[in-house]
Each structure stands twice: as structure tokens, then as C-alpha cells.
Amino acid sequence: MALIKAESLALGYDNGIIVKDLDFEVNAGDYLCIVGENGSGKSTLMRTLLGLQNPKGGRIILGDGLTKKEIGYLPQQTQVQKDFPASVREIVISGCQARCGLRPFYNREEKGLAEKNMERLGITDLSARSYRELSGGQQQRVLLARALCATQKLLILDEPVSGLDVKVTAELYTIIKELNHDGITIIMVSHDIAAAVKYASHILHIGDQIFFGTRDSYLESRQGKLFLEAEGSDGNE
Predict the structure, then answer these.
(1) pLDDT at 125
(2) What strands, in cross-sheet order, belong to the sheet with 154-158?
(3) To 10 degrees, what angle do helices 136-150 and 108-120 make?
(4) CA dihedral angle for residue 133, residue 122, residue 101, residue 186, rounded to 10 degrees
């Protein structure tokens, strides 16, 4: 059974619907990139998948034992969040909060998980540093380690390389791909169409016309070819 399945999904706000008749599914091990024009509803879909916003129609089904508490989320950062005055270790381990329930402290297992994920992201040496003092790339690694503390199944990433330089962007994409290879399912919203068609196993294109299918099918589709041409990519980078 799929981890996430959307059936006849409609998304929007009080003043109307942005997108409708959205059908797709995400299976364990998939790497799904969600692409489309600005304002097409990509971030709205993220919030809906996370349960932060209700759909206007249709439904989202979680399967394979997945619960909303087991979804790791890396949102776009605001300037206020970038200046958050906490240590790296405090931010990373806060990803374990859903595991605590009513317990007001982290246990040995959760502390060990935080250490493991800091090591996994190469930020152990930054653990005592203030988050606000870090570079943009270091901050994204911290937030990714935090998201991993919440899940061993599924990561949802909203524009994870926004504002990062070329070198740091490439490093972060490599890390995300390695996590996928290690068995973590990825759903990523991206304006970077070149990276989407390079790394993803599946593409969901939201716009006037909706496409959902494999990366290779997207590259061969009329919609994919037009969008790649408009974005200046041929899909072979």
C-alpha cells in the first residue's frame, strides 16, 4: 500500500480553489519532486499533506502504518527563524518532541538519535554553536537533522536549497539523495527543474494541466518538454 495517496484532491483558500482533480501516490522509497509555476499550489499541497490545512475536496490517505507524527518536515525559513537563539543540539533534538508525548524531557534513546543524525549530516562539531551564527548551508543541515529525528520513513522538503550558493546546493542535494538511497521516502517542492529531473524518481507537475508519473515519462511528455524548455533545462544535466 502507498505511504500517501491523494484522490480527487482540491486545494485552495476561502476565496477559491487553486487546483483540483489531483491524483497521485507516493510509495516507500520514492523520490517525488513537485514542480510547477509560481502560485500553482505547491506549498499549499505541502501544508495539506502535513495536516496544516484542510483540502477543499477529495482526500489524502496515509498507508503502510504511516502517521502524521512520523513525517519529517523541512519548511522554507523566515528571517526570524534564521535568527533563532538556540544551540544546534537543542534544535536537532526538538525533532523528537512528537515521540515524547506528555513526557517533559528527552530520554536516552532520543538523545542518541539526535547525536546520530548530527553525525549523519556532518554537524557534530557544531552541536554547541548557536544556530543563528551558522551559514545558510549549515542551518539547512541542522534543520534536516531535526526532521530526521521525527521520521525513519518520509521527509517533506519545501524548497530546501532556496538562497544557497551552487556548491552548498550540490552538497545538500547529494545528502538528500543518500537519505533516499538509505530507504527514506522524499517529497520535495522545488523551483529547480534541472535538479528535479536529475534526482527524482517521480514528478508531480501542478498547473493548468496536471502530470504525475515517472521522471522518464515526464521527460517524454509534452508538458514536461515545454516546462523544461521554458526553464532553460533539457533534462540531461
Answers:
(1) 96
(2) 71-74, 154-158, 185-189, 31-36, 202-206, 211-214
(3) 140
(4) 110
pTM listed for this prediction: 0.90
Contact of 60 with 9, CB cutoff 8 Å: yes
Tens-digit pLDDT profile for residues 2-49: 999 999 999 988 778 889 999 999 999 999 999 988 888 898 899 899
- CA–CA separation, 32 and 49 (whole Å): 13
User: Residue ranges per domain, the chain?
Assistant: 1-66+153-237, 73-152
Cell of 6: 491523494
SS3 of residue 73 by DSSP: strand
Rounded to whole angstroms, the Cα distance separating 191 from 19 reads 18
Which CATH number among 3.40.50.2300, 3.30.110.30, 3.90.226.10, 3.40.50.300 corresponds to the domain 1-66+153-237? 3.40.50.300
- Partners of 158 in the beta sheet? 189
Q: Which is higher by pLDDT, 237 or 131?
A: 131
Angle CA 80–82–86, to nearest 5: 100
The predicted-structure confidence for 100-142, as pLDDT tens digits, reads as follows 777 778 899 999 999 999 999 999 999 999 999 999 999 999 9
